Amino acid sequence: MLLSMTGFGKSVVTIPNKKITVEIKSLNSKQLDISARVPAIFREKELELRNLIASVVERGKVDFQIYSESIGAETTVSLNIPLMAAYKAQVEEMARQLGIPWPDDWYGVLLRFPETVKSELPAALTDEESEALFNATREAIDGLMQFRAKEGKKLEEFFTKKISNIRELLSSVDPYEKERVVKIRARIEENLSKIDSVTFDKNRLEQEMIFYIEKLDINEEKQRLAQHLNYFMETMEHGNGQGKKLGFISQEMGREINTLGSKSNHAELQKIVVKMKDELEQIKEQVLNVM
């Protein structure tokens, strides 16, 4: 089964006095690009976490975020009262010198000054916190990959339908192809008959006619396009990691369709080619999301 590069996973793990939330979101990208937002307390584990994500996710633009919330009665936050007293004294002195009133809201003013609120972080990450962090990350990655699998199934159904549409369009070429050769031949003969006082070798004309019609022959393009359609489906069945290969195959399909258009020389065939191009462009757009 195909995997999409688009996905989202989230996990919440609770331990005494702390709740750890991990979120992972991925979008399509040619390479693996991980953007991480990690609280200071978990910073020492960031490299290990990146390696863990890279070993599973493989490709895509990944946004990785960790949130840590204290839920116990104990708190590591306190007010720096001596510093706030010093700030208050300086504000009062400033007010006297400038002849302006004191603030109406001392709380709001003092709390906006730097370092008035102290956050006492633990000296090191505990084993319990580290285990909870990695468990949450693994669960979030699992959720992301499940999301990718669901999206991949939708892509597989989409590609199957589009390839089938191109096959039907290709099969509709045959009647117009036979009609096209007859019309081309008749048009050339009609134009020659309109030219007065011109003699020509009918055998030579026949040879030139055959040569000209062979140049407009599209059998090879039809066969190669049919082969590319089969190869696309076979590659898709191989499952994960086929995104780049499917992109290359779709480019080859485009070359054959373009050649069909340039050789068609027939209004109805041109319409069919335009429809093929429309189906193929939709495939190319969605192939960018495949792992």
Integer-rounded radius of gyration: 35 Å
Query: SSE string, helix = H, strand = E?
Result: EEEHEEHHEHHHHHH
Shape category: elongated
Strand order of the largest sheet: 1-2-4-3
- Beta-strand residue fraction: 5-15%
Summarize the structure.
The protein has helices at 46-57, 81-98, 106-111, 127-171, 173-193, 202-215, 219-237, 243-264, 267-287, and strands at 7-15, 18-27, 32-37, 60-70, 77-79, 117-119. With 291 residues, it is α+β, with helices and mostly antiparallel strands.
Give an overview in words.
- The chain has nine helices and six strands; from the N terminus they run βββαββααβαααααα.
- The protein starts with 6 loop residues before the first strand and ends with a helix.
- It is elongated, with a radius of gyration of 35 Å.
- Helix 1 runs parallel beside helix 4 (127-171), helix 4 runs antiparallel to helix 7 and helix 7 packs antiparallel against helix 8 (243-264).
- The mean pLDDT is 86.
- A four-stranded mixed sheet has the order 1-2-4-3. The chain has a two-stranded antiparallel ribbon with strand order 5-6.
- It has helices at 46-57, 81-98, 106-111, 127-171, 173-193, 202-215, 219-237, 243-264, 267-287; strands at residues 7-15, 18-27, 32-37, 60-70, 77-79, 117-119.
- Helix 1 links the parallel strand 3 (32-37) and strand 4 (60-70).
- The protein is of the alpha+beta class.
- The protein has three domains: 7-72 and 126-148, 2-Layer Sandwich (Ribosomal Protein S5, domain 2), CATH 3.30.230.40; 77-119, no CATH class; 150-287, no CATH class.
